[in-house]
From TrEMBL:
It comes from Streptomyces cupreus. GO terms for molecular function: DNA binding. The chain crosses the membrane at residues 71-88. This is Site-specific integrase. Gene3D superfamilies: 1.10.150.130, Intergrase catalytic core. It comes from the Bacteria. Residues 46-133 form the Core-binding (CB) domain. The keyword Cell cycle does not apply.
Amino acid sequence: MRLYFANHRAVWRVGDVAGIDRSLLAGALERYRLPVGTPVLLDEAMRPVEPVSSWFRSLALARRDAKSMRAYAYTVLMLLGFLLARGVDLRSATEMDILQFRQWRRADAEDTVGGTTWDRDAAAIVSLYKHLVRVGYVRASPWRSSQGESLGSGFSTDVRVRHLELEQYLFFRDVGFGGLTPASELDETFGGWRPHRNRAAVELALLTGMRAQEWSTLLLPELGLMAGHRPQTADVDLAACAKQKRPRSVYVPVGAMELLDPYLMIERPEIVAKAQRTLRRRHQDLFVVQRLEADDTKVRGVLEGRTVTRSIKDLAPDLRRITVLETGGGLEPLALFIGQGGKMLTASGWDRVRWGAWDRLKAWSADQNAPQVPCRCWVYHDLRHTFALRLLIFLTREALGDAERQQLPMSTLLDHMTRNPLLVVQRRLGHVLPSTTYRYIRYLKDPMREVDDAFREWTVADGASYVTIARHLLNLEENAHAAPR
């Protein structure tokens, strides 16, 4: 069995090379269209393996994102291989077969997995068997209902919240990404690429709390950055690029918009100019927008040989990467952050930028102006955690100050609903459950800093350290002066 994933543009390119008439190819794609990223499991004769391929299609039509479908597909492929080795299939598998697959994944496989990864695998298996029951392929799931229809690890994950202090963030942004020295001077040895773009990206991530997939896939019209215009602030409606495609609105403040100016005026025009030859060569593979409509919230252009109109907020990340505007004088990528060839940077591309910044931070960490650097490399999601914590601290202080000024014995229900800091942060971050936001409460104060403060006097009392006290108690100081035997 071999696993494939639907890719319209790959079919379009192959058809172009094979000389297939574009109108015929466009009609075939329209008639047999599968959502992008839909898994397809084929046997040795290149026929779909059922009922698994039908389940994949149901996931796609239920608007599961391509990343989740890919993970589910590989899990089920492993399950099928495991069952085949035992001489059973999905219909004849028993509870013991499924539980032994869990044991194999977690303890016996060449590359074992932890509880979090297994919980994702379990979700895939549960979803598959629910589909098999629904279509009548099996009467019931193999495992007993007393297990609550869950094969999960049984352990709840506690997300570690890593956040940055101000001096750490400035070191992170200006030295790591911006190519400056810790003394805020120009580093003549800096050999990085596009520092204005990279500084603007991390500032946007910090001041909006957006996830990496959200801020890295933004388009110019979403921030009002068309025809040389740059508003003071912006409100972005997220949909297709948000986690699990849950819509929410994000406010982009003045600071984030202002730091875009050097990139938009200096670096981006140079990138676009150099990319024109590449973009023209790839013209047939792009979504070429002819005009913006509905106050720049919709785009109309040619995609895979068809003229279509699409809402910008509903454009999937893979489509955003190939969206360009025909200006008459050239092709303008609509992606905000672009790299060589005018293409939107991928997640791996931004990771390369991050690791380059991390190497610079470590190289400068011994400088007297450098703050403490953590042992593990920062990730972009740490900026989201920093946004959440700073906002939560500010709103909590504001709420306490209002209550004190009004001399309220207790908050009214309306105050709680409209001004509760946790509810505000939950809405800003797009968390579905309040419990996800509650995890930030324990990080309102840095626990490790409290430990340092609590024991600082012990370590400096009478100039004695723990090592000095231990040596004294064990009479090591006297023994050190004794003659060796």
